[in-house]
Amino acid sequence: MKYSHIIWDFDGTICNTWDGVFQSIQQVSRIHHLPTKDEDIAAAIHSGETLEVALQNLFKIDNAEIIADLIKTYRSHYVAHQGELQSLFPGILKVLKICHEKGITSVICSNKGTQAVHDALAQFEIQDFFRLVIGYEPGLPHKPSKEVFTQLIQPVMNDIPLEQILVIGDTAKDMIFAQNCGIDGCWASYGFGRKDDSMHPKYILEESSDILMVL
Q: 18-85, which class in CATH?
């Protein structure tokens, strides 16, 4: 077994949250009278940014109080509808079970809000597959910063050699994070991200089950 530890992204890698995220941003646009194009919303999701940064970039707003209000609207809609608008990617449950059976330690590192990640894990009853869940929290480092790994993940990995760790994610942020940490990156091309020149994945997954060939 080449990799003993996997750092998973969540949205676009484990869970298909596209409709929930897209419709929640549309709700922000409607409620706050901030017209935007569907393709611009899609680009914001493709970026893999935190919600705060994605909304700042999408609506060209720098005011922290306004952004906080937009986030409140977004989360209210998302929480109300996430159960019906998100699903696990095909085959991912089997992959997680096999990794668990092989004794591979799985960690989630997401730029999605921590509570939203925990809610989804509970919805699909997959929380027991993960030793650690890291989501976005204001004031803490987030992907692609190396400090997410050195400060929040590495301390619980008991000095595991970097070559035994694999990062799996769907956006450039995930692959840059892997590069910053000196860890092999595995691009989930079936997810939300779009390939660009900043990405240098060691592996490319066409579907979730492809990870079993890597391990």
A: mainly alpha
1 — pLDDT class (breaks 50, 70, 90) = low
Residue identified by tokens 């070559």 is: 163
Percent with pLDDT over 90 in the chain: 91
CB 173 within 8 A of CB 199: no
Kindly state the greatest CA–CA separation across the chain.
53
Spatial distance between the Cα atoms of 121 and 58, rounded to a whole number of angstroms: 28
pLDDT digits (tens, 9 = 90+) for 18-32: 999 999 999 999 999
Mean pLDDT of the chain: 95
CATH classification of 5-16+87-214, choosing from 3.10.20.740, 3.20.130.10, 1.10.472.10, 3.40.50.1000? Answer: 3.40.50.1000
Q: Is 69 exposed, middle or buried (0-12, 13-18, 19+ CB in 10 A)?
A: middle
Peptide bond into 155 cis (omega under 30): no
> pTM of the predicted model, to two decimals?
0.93
- Structural domain boundaries in the chain: 5-16+87-214, 18-85
Q: Tell me: the pLDDT tens digits for 164-196?
A: 999 999 999 999 999 999 999 999 999 999 888
Same fold? 5-16+87-214, 18-85: no
Residue 81 phi/psi, 5° resolution? Answer: -125, 0
